[in-house]
Amino acid sequence: MKRLNLILVILAVGIFMVLGFGSTIEQADSICDPSESIDCEDCQFPPLDMSQKQIVMSSSTPARIYQFKYLNGTYENTWVSEITPAHGIRGISVGDADNDGIPDITAVVKNDGRGKKFVKIYMYKHGSQGAPDYVGPDLGRSFFYVHDSIIADADNDGRNELIVAVEDSIKIFRWDGSDFINIWNSRKYPSTIFSVDVGDADNDGSNEIVLAAFYTDSAVILESLGSDEWGNEQMTEPIPEEYYGPGFTWLGIDYAKVRDADNIEGNEIVAGGNNNRLMIWKYNAEGNEEYDLVFISRDLGGFTQGVDAGDIDGDDLNEVLAIDSDYTNDLINNVYRFDYDVESYDGSTIFSHNYVLSYMALGNIDSDPEDEIVLSSDTLLILDNGFLTWEFPHGGKFEIWEETNPVEPDPTAPSAVSDLTAGNPTSSSIDLTWTAPGDDGTDGTASQYDIRYSTSWLDETNWDGANQCSGEPSPSAASSPESFTVTGLSPNTSYYFALKTADESLNWSYLSNNALETTLEATPLDAPSGLKAKQPGKAPKVGLEWTDNSSNEDGFRIYRDGALLAEVGSNTTSYEDSTISSGVTYTYQVCAYAGNEEACSDTVSITTK
User: Fold this and answer.
1) Each residue of 362-380: pLDDT tens digit?
2) Which position has the higher pLDDT, 100 or 31?
3) Any bridge partners for residue 362, and if so which?
4) Residue 415 CB: number of other CB atoms within 10 A?
5) Alpha-carbon span 157 to 172, nearest angstrom
6) Looking at residues 478-504, what average pLDDT do you find?
7) Nearest-angstrom CA–CA distance, 107 and 151
């Protein structure tokens, strides 16, 4: 065990390290020499083990993914993958990305050298020997500026999504069994999105997406609207101009996280930015139903690029931590601790470092009572009980995974449905009913259904080419009655229906029985009328209202400037467009539809403020 040179340097220039002074720091022993290729002859990493708590870190030069665990009283580099060719890893995430019950590692990998330009999603599964288990298609040049990603249940349906912050928007992907499918894209925001987090920001029991964007004085909150849509956008209370960074006429929020900061009830949004301050917002559920700014710290001296909250002293109360990253004086970069005290937060310096601190997160990796502080600069640093105890000779963006997970494979698929029935036809829809199978055979609860239909008998030979439904219900417990309405069908047409069931490990059942039904003759649709478009004040949205004159529509299609904007269900008479820009004239039209038939309203135009 030896002392780090950085401590000697700091002492020499008179920088006092609070809580870290005089500590003994263990240098990481890498299984491979980090200066060599990981294909070196002596590199014998075991397969990727996702069953324990861990830190996963990416580095750009070379482009590698590292896994670290606390084993035998110390931290060890337990696995590594080197990606070639690659210019950098733009987003690293840990979580159950494919919804099989076992955590995965995902990375958004970029290459723009030697004429090979691509941006792809990589996924590593439990047991990987170093090569990715999945490499997606090229996402295109628009993905070159990825800044963050997270695996989380963003729509509260029990399945995880992969959310990627791409330049000035977010894109949401979901694993469909073989690929990550892009299911939703946000509007383009006025500036770069640097971080994305998912958590219950308004304490209503459901997750929201929270974005931190540069050149903005507020964080952005998005709610799930169901059916793979997100909206009801809210902004946190703006930061007053007197708290902008020194010499800045604008504010950039770099990082925002959903955390319990005050240990009272529910979560807050904690954030940092180029104004060198920690900022905390709390949702006011009993008042204005907005995110009120409840705390803003003093000037910490450098960009506040990392914030988090956790129990670093084992007293069962969270502390809020923030780092300053002083790019003008690389001898003074600090970690600050803030404790909630009755009505505000008291702050103090707990650690100083002589390199720029780029990232910070808290997590309990060694299973003791306290959370560890993990920092990244040119190296990866771990503080335990306030002392710098371990260092790895590479730094980069990282994620902490705090769960232990059974990773035994699930070999048993759900049983095949045998009582699928079709009935209650209209000119464009047919109802299906069946009895839920189990997760393992006829026991437990399965994870998802795949319902398809065709004008021909369905079997394994034509299943892949059949029409696939969307919006199927999540399976209920075994033996429960299930139902689903298939819409968008053609009038006076006979259809065969069948389904398969999958468990959390994506073990698929055999094909169900076929159910046959014929749609009715078409009844003419009546077009909606009285379409109105309004913008409430200067809010970044347009509200549409219309009169539903038809009784047999499958739903309504909203068109903007001649292009399909959205679809809503039958009997709906309003829609909110939150993807607008100011000072633009938009033309809207609403059409009732049933199957392939449409009946459309008159158009209406509005110029946004």
Assistant:
1) 999 998 999 999 998 888 9
2) 100
3) 373
4) 19
5) 15
6) 93
7) 11
Strands 387-392 and 26-27: parallel
Residue 10: strand, helix, or coil: helix
Burial class (CB in 10 A: 0-12, 13-18, 19+), 76: middle
Q: Are 70 and 422 in contact (CB under 8 A)?
A: no
One-letter amino acid of 268:
E
Return the ∠ at Cα 475 (arms to 553 and 517), rounded to 5°. 45
Q: Within 10 Å of residue 300's Cβ, how many Cβ atoms?
A: 21
* Cβ neighbours around 389 below 10 Å, total: 20
* Residue 320 scores a pLDDT above 80: yes
Residues 6+ apart with CB under 8 A from 127: 47, 48
Q: Which two tokens stand for residue 4?
A: 């780090």
Classify 290 as helix, strand or coil: coil
The three-class DSSP label of residue 6 is helix
Separation in Å, CA 22 to CA 4, 146, 385: 10, 40, 13
Residue pair 268/208 in contact by the 8 Å Cβ criterion: no
Residue type, 364: N
Q: pLDDT, tens digit, for every residue of 446-485? A: 989 999 999 999 999 999 999 999 989 989 999 999 999 9
Among 57, 79, 64, 76, CA closest to 128: 79
Give the start-end residues of each E strand in 342-379: 344-353, 359-363, 372-376
Task: Describe the strand order of the beta sheet including 398-401 as a list of residue ranges.
Answer: 74-82, 64-71, 54-59, 398-401
